[in-house]
Write a structure and sequence with these properties.
2 copies of one chain form a homodimer. Chain A is an alpha/beta fold. Chain A is 44% helix and 17% strand. Chain A contains 35 helices and 33 strands. In chain A, the strands form 7 sheets. In chain A, strands 14-24-23-16-17-18-19-15 form an 8-stranded mixed sheet. In chain A, strands 26-27-28-29-30-31-32-33 form an 8-stranded parallel beta barrel, surrounded by 7 helices. In chain A, helix 5 runs parallel beside helix 7. The longest helix of chain A has 26 residues. Chain A is elongated and about 105 Å long. In chain A, 54% of the residues are buried. Chains A and B meet through helix 26, helix 28, helix 29, helix 31 and helix 32 of A and helix 26, helix 28, helix 29, helix 31 and helix 32 of B.
Chain lengths: 916, 916
């Protein structure tokens, strides 16, 4: 197969410069090594580390890396290569030939290559690999003669044809019913000759197999299996670059937020063989335990096997410690390498090795993937070992990892036995078990009887709030990780799985089903909000040790986990500049957040309180009032409730600042949607159900997100603002009188025009003066606004004339800035990830290029008018490490996030500052 | 009543500086004159022009003006005055005393004042006026003696008390049932003494009346009518400033977009009397006919009357020409003044005069309000007279005026006889008459029988489109001037009234009612979309002369109106820099727009075509398709329709550029909403109604405005983009082959990320290449995007790398930029106008401070990346003069508006450029 080489470069522009002449596209590793570990963007992770290992004297089979730039070029230029690549590859091969003293395609003693992908970030198993490249009808004889092992040689050859035929030439099953064709041919042969295992095949059998494989390829695609070794090489290179855009690679990148533009490198490396008999082996190892972080050598190997055998799981590998007995010399070498790797890379390494006839080769090393728990432990312990200083240790722990120290967990063994019913989106981490309930009422009933429940809904609405509070966990069959269910669950620290679309629910029959399996209300399920897995039946869960220590149920000195947590948090607080607040609507949430290190409340939503107890009736009366008098009557009923709410929160926060947002959501959200509830309300309000329905209908909106909400409510009905601020000030006054400290910050939502804020400020200030006069206390308070529509950000200088602080409401700012409804974006966000238009969900991680501009403009203009203005952010993004990095960069004073994200935010804030 | 004078200024800030010491708050006019016409912002229109008249030697009774700054101070400082005002008013009074040789409060020969408001813009009748101020129990005797006319003196006094008691002291009817109290007292007296007319009252009667008036005041408010003339004066000044914030003034300002911050001035002026007998008179006059602009002296007067009598309409005034006979000397003087005023002010003047004992006094002059027709005619004719040059003439015609030359009109006499049924919002100008129909189908049926109809709906949706086309006019009972009905009607140039909330509709019974009046389907109504009035019965209408000439039904030389129109348009084209395009979706609209001077189509919405004929079925099949194959099948059906549409439009535009926007609205909009229609569709599609309903439901969105629409559709289903661009290119190819010119501009909607555009561009370019190869023609086309979400504007530099042009979609940019749904803003925009938060509807006139920033940023960034990028705007704002001024300032290349707004836009564009 001839490689396509572009004769002319195409599509050059100022932003995407043309490939320069004489650009270096290949980098050697081995005795001569061009690259190093720092060149991972260019050489990919594998290539860079092969080079680095070669540099520090580890036994790396020589080879060369074709850079990621070639991949980018390949896709930008109709799958053609830069003109000079051909020559550079040739030179690479020749250099290896020289080092190995063998020739590629030599009929006597052929040099064989593996051709492997290697992206900037590891994407294990996602892209294609070709082994044993360089074998053909002639070289196989040479290998056979040279190794005096014809069976080995022919087995390598048939494996190579199989792999090449599949991956490069595309001979694959044409539908799901069809068996994998090469496998089918082999099974056919084995049946003919009455053999059961591959290992039973003789040299003659393998030769027959090779014949049949070649015939299969010819018959399937009308092309011959290439005998020219360079044709083989270019075919393999093309296949690896091609696999960058295969479906599973695309999906993987989506999941892990890897941009398609990074591209993959291709590593062409001398083959070494772990399958040359009992003195050969292959294995993978971690320098420490990747599951719990313990400082123990960890890994597994197989004697007389190729790497693929370990992965395929046909034979069960042995624990690495056994190698001590089987190959003590190699094991000793491995131990030394383990130490050398950690000393050199200063991090836990995950490496692959092959032992060919007692000689150890290193095929790969990389920073090992690890659980959150392991990440924390390894960082803390490596700091103790002086492998890394505090700052490095802080940077080494993915901020999200901290979460895994906090969430309740399933018993590990019980989970293994449990049946996975379905999978959804992991939306609220942790593990929960309980009875299936379909309504909020049922959830409350179950809770009142001391039992646990999982609230299962197609999607949730504010009406379900009481049920969500009562339930252990929430499961929805629709909606994404930023749906109402997910947002509220994370806010509450509830376990939550969203969008489990295989499940269909039937509220009327009170059951849900997945295929043939039917689960009735009252049946037990268990959900793992960290993985998205839904299990049939009950699985025992336990709160994390950190939570147990924080709530006084365990002693700190008894929990190593807690000590790790504390160490990391202490470091984080030392290096971060950003303040960390929490979004909390209840005293319970507030207390938990303070335990987690929150330094104040950045967002207290008054409306969440509206659903508690009977007060929803008064809320509804207020909403449905047709005149001021009626409305004031209803507001009067609400005042004592709200005052009590705020007292509770102020008390819980013990003098830390509390930012209270005035009523924000469209009023229609509070109204009953089902006729029974409407009728009941009509009766209570002493109006006819028709009138009530009509009033409800009048409040319906085409686009409630952009409708009559936020300060538009307070400006339409200043009496609501007055009631709410009175409740706030009266609560503050009552605590101050008891000698407590209270720091009140009143926040007016959805301000786009400074006048909107002015009118609200008038009402609030007047109320403050009135309450202070009545109660004869002085209340210090600040008055600010949320910046959550683009106009607010763009006119932040005007708004800052009135506002003493801003809190960026990045949820709504994202919705308006992108013109994208969070509730509706599900229908196209998947496609947008696939197309790489929006590699990350902009509701989870802030869109720096667009919404970020608005935040920056808002911050700068705000400061220009009021230099000491306090700036925070209270959207979902406040708990997202990537977003926190951005907010730190913009120079906000604090981020505010849901209580369980507070530790994550502390760590992310420190990392952001350290990265600066 | 003592005036409140602030001893300390309050609430000063950098933006609102404190009143400076020794600031000049009063300006004299008369023999000494401090002000002039240019000082209208400070002195108000009345005050400035009084000063100007005094300057040019016209007989103005002397007085002084208290500035508008005092009004602003008054409201900013708790209704207190600047400290130095008291002294300045005193000095003003003394100056007038000197000029008049009389003393204020003199018991022998008292100087009397009128106290009148006078804002920057005239607000006729909206604010309070006090006449005859300075009379009290003693001065009335002096006046009586001096004039030797006790009846006159006492009548003046009782009028003064009445006015002062009402306006300053607040003695008014306490509810609607109660009669006006002073009037009641007078009627009581007249009944007692058996007199019928006010004029029959004797001096003694009047003295009794004065007594009773004073008693009324005392009993009602417990205060005595003030005898101190300075107390009277301060009371009156306070009342005038106070009336700036009375309800009717606020409502008036809302309607005419006058900011509350302008404030009013107060004019204190020597009284002159038109009611001193048969040698006295009072009147108002226009230097030309304000209705049609004819150059004739126009006005009316009353002998022996005060100004209020002319306004009150108790006596019928005489035409001004009669004065020639009754008072030839005064008439001659008036003619001279008419000429002098026009010569001096260079504009048509509306003035008030009083003749006191044969001596003429000028009380006011101002630029006269006029109809659109008159504005055009006066400007053109004054230019001919060399009163103004072309530029001034262009600036003198409110751009909207041009509309009134274009719309069909009712027969003037017929309208006077017709019964006004209700009033709604004038949403599409012109006059239409027809049968009431409640459904699109009925409208089409009526049209097919050659009859005219008015489509009456609570509100309209795209489903009504066919009916809107078939009907003469559209009437809705809900929704504002930017509702669907209004937008589409203006687009089509249909007469439309929106939000006529008094009307309730019953589709089932096929009737609508206003109070007791019931109108059945088939009954005739007539609607005036210029005034918002709805009449019972049929009123004859006629198309405007301009339209008749343009459509060849009348010769240009026979229509003076058309000549006026042409003259103004020629001027406009000479001075404007902005290009004017039109938003047109059909060949008919396109042709009309070209006749009106459109230089291209700036927005051709492909989706409006989807509702024509049977194609909606194919559209629905496409939408409800569950896989690519089904969808492509439906698209194949649509292709020929769309191709034909585009051919028609290209043909109509004869080589002018045509910007075609690809599919934009959320798909749910195209689905049938009623079950009958759904069932029919299900049958056609051969699926069950349940399945259809479910698929429809799946497409419902929480916030469709921010949902799956715009290029998100084309990126989800590239096959739609492919079909649409194929239809466009095939249409272009077929015309090019026939030797016609075609200028295609394809516009991708709702782009926020450059990648969105890239993917669409790939599909479009590929299709273009394919069609060009198939048809063997070269098609020149441009590819651009709408900038209609904030992110699009903020990243316009990136987007401009791909887009060859931008069209700012300011409708959606307003919705997203302000976070305000056009469909839902009705519930608070009224209140927001009232509070002065949003003095203008941001969907009608662009919010320069916010959305305008986004337009400016988008334009600048776009140009930074592509200096020759073509920039336009195609939102509703494209036809709004104020917005056009802004777009001209930003330096856009063109604005695009609905066909009937094209002449308005041409004129507004010229004005914008001239104002620069």
């Amino acid at each position: 197969m001839a490689k396509k080489v572009a004769t002319k470069t195409k599509k050059c522009s100022a932003k995407k410069p043309c490939a320069k002449k004489n650009e270096k596209y290949t980098y050697l590793f081995g005795k001569t090594t061009d690259g190093d570990a720092k060149m991972r963007n260019l050489l990919g992770g594998k290539g860079a580390n092969l080079a680095e290992m070669a540099r520090i004297g580890l036994p790396v089979p020589p080879g060369f890396t074709i850079t990621t730039e070639v991949c980018t070029y390949f896709y930008d230029n109709g799958k053609k290569y830069p003109a000079s690549l051909e020559k550079q590859v040739k030179l690479g091969v020749e250099s290896v030939e020289k080092q190995m003293g063998k020739k590629f395609g030599d009929e006597k003693d052929p040099l064989l290559f593996s051709v492997r992908s290697g992206a900037r970030e590891s994407m294990p198993g996602m892209m294609d690999t070709i082994l044993n490249l360089g074998l053909n009808d002639k070289t196989v004889e040479g290998l056979s003669a040279k190794t005096q092992n014809p069976r080995f040689a022919w087995d390598c050859y048939r494996r190579f044809i199989q792999m090449y035929g599949d991956v490069v030439m595309g001979v694959q099953a044409r539908n799901e019913a069809e068996p994998e064709p090469f496998h089918h041919v082999m099974e056919g042969l084995k049946a003919e000759i009455g053999k059961k295992f591959d290992t039973e095949l003789t040299v003659e059998d393998l030769k027959e197999l090779v014949k049949r494989y070649k015939a299969l390829i010819k018959s399937r695609i009308g092309k011959t299996f290439p005998q020219d070794v360079y044709d083989q090489l270019w075919g393999a290179i093309g296949a690896v670059f091609g696999s960058w855009m295969n479906e599973r690679a695309i999906i993987y990148r989506q999941k892990y937020g890897i941009p398609a533009s990074w591209g993959t490198a291709v590593n062409v490396q001398t083959m070494v063989f772990g399958n040359k008999g009992e003195t050969s082996a292959t294995g993978v190892a971690f320098t420490r335990d990747p599951a719990n972080g313990e400082n123990e050598f960890y890994g597994e190997y197989l004697i007389n096997a190729q790497g693929e055998d370990v992965v395929a799981g046909v034979r069960t590998p042995h624990k690495i410690s056994q190698l001590q007995n089987e190959m003590p010399k190699a094991y000793k070498e491995l131990l030394a390498i383990r130490k050398k790797l950690e000393n050199h890379f200063k991090d836990m390494q995950d490496f692959e090795f092959t032992i060919e006839e007692n000689k150890l080769y290193m095929l790969q090393t990389r920073n090992g993937k690890r659980t959150g728990m392991a990440a924390v432990r390894i960082a803390v312990e490596m700091n103790k070992q002086k492998f890394m200083d505090e700052k490095t240790a802080v940077l080494k722990i993915p901020a999200d990892s901290i979460s895994s120290l906090l969430v309740p967990v399933f018993d590990t063994n019980a989970v293994k036995r449990a049946k996975v019913l379905a999978k959804g989106l992991p939306a609220g981490p942790g593990a929960a078990s309980g009875e299936v309930v379909f309504t909020a009422a049922q959830a409350e009933l179950v809770a009142s009887r001391g039992r646990k429940s999982i609230l299962c809904r197609e999607e949730t609405s504010p009406e379900d709030l009481r049920g969500m509070i009562a339930a252990e966990g929430i499961l929805t069959s629709r909606g994404g990780v930023s749906s109402h269910a997910a947002l509220v669950a994370r806010q509450m620290g509830k376990v939550c799985i969203c969008g489990a679309s295989e499940i269909s629910m039937d509220y009327n029959k009170r059951l849900m089903s997945v295929g043939d399996i039917v689960i009735k209300e009252g049946d037990y399920i268990s959900i793992d909000g960290t993985t998205g897995e839904i299990y049939l039946g009950e699985i025992e869960t336990a709160p994390s040790e950190v939570i147990r220590v924080l709530s006084g149920k365990m002693k700190a000195e008894k929990s190593y986990t807690f000590q790790l947590f504390q160490t990391v948090m202490k470091w984080a607080d030392k290096y971060r500049k950003l303040g960390i607040r929490t979004n909390a609507d209840t005293p319970e949430q507030a207390k938990r957040a303070v335990q987690f290190g929150a330094e104040g409340i950045g967002l207290c939503r008054t409306e969440h309180m509206f659903f508690e107890g009977d007060r929803i009736d008064a809320v509804r009366e207020m909403i449905l009032a047709t005149d001021l008098q009626e409305r004031q009557k209803a507001l009067k009923k609400l005042l004592p409730y709200q005052r009590k709410d705020f007292e509770g929160i102020f008390k819980a926060m013990e003098g830390l600042p509390v930012t209270i947002r005035l009523l924000d959501p469209p009023l229609h959200e509070f109204l009953p949607h089902e006729s029974a509830a409407r009728n009941a309300l009509a009766e209570k309000m002493n109006i006819s159900p028709e009138v009530l329905t009509e009033r409800c209908k009048a409040l319906e909106e085409q686009n409630p997100m952009l409708g009559h909400r936020g300060c538009r409510l307070g400006n339409s009905y200043p009496e609501i603002t007055e009631m709410q601020s009175r409740a706030i000030f009266e609560a503050a006054a009552s605590l101050i009188k008891k000698g407590k400290k209270v720091k009140v910050e009143i926040m007016v939502p959805l301000v786009g025009f400074v006048q909107e804020l002015k009118f609200q400020a008038e009402v609030i200030n007047k109320t403050a003066e009135a309450v202070m006069a009545e109660k004869k206390v002085k209340i210090d308070y600040m008055l600010g606004t949320m910046i959550e529509v683009p106009r607010g950000a763009l006119t932040a200088d005007e708004i800052a004339e009135v506002a003493q602080f801003f809190s960026f409401g990045t949820n709504d700012l994202t919705q308006t800035g992108l013109g994208m409804s969070r509730d509706d974006a599900g229908s196209f966000l998947g496609r947008y990830k696939e197309l790489d238009i929006l590699p990350k969900n902009p509701f989870a991680s802030i869109d720096k290029g667009g919404v970020g501009q608005l935040v920056r403009i808002g911050a700068e203009k705000g400061r220009s008018a009021r230099p000491n203005i306090k700036l925070g952010i209270c959207g979902e993004h406040g708990g997202d490490p990537d977003s926190i990095d951005f907010f730190n960069d913009v120079g906000l004073n604090y981020v505010s996030c849901s209580p369980p994200r507070v530790p994550v935010a502390r760590l992310a804030a420190a990392q952001a500052q350290l990265k600066k």
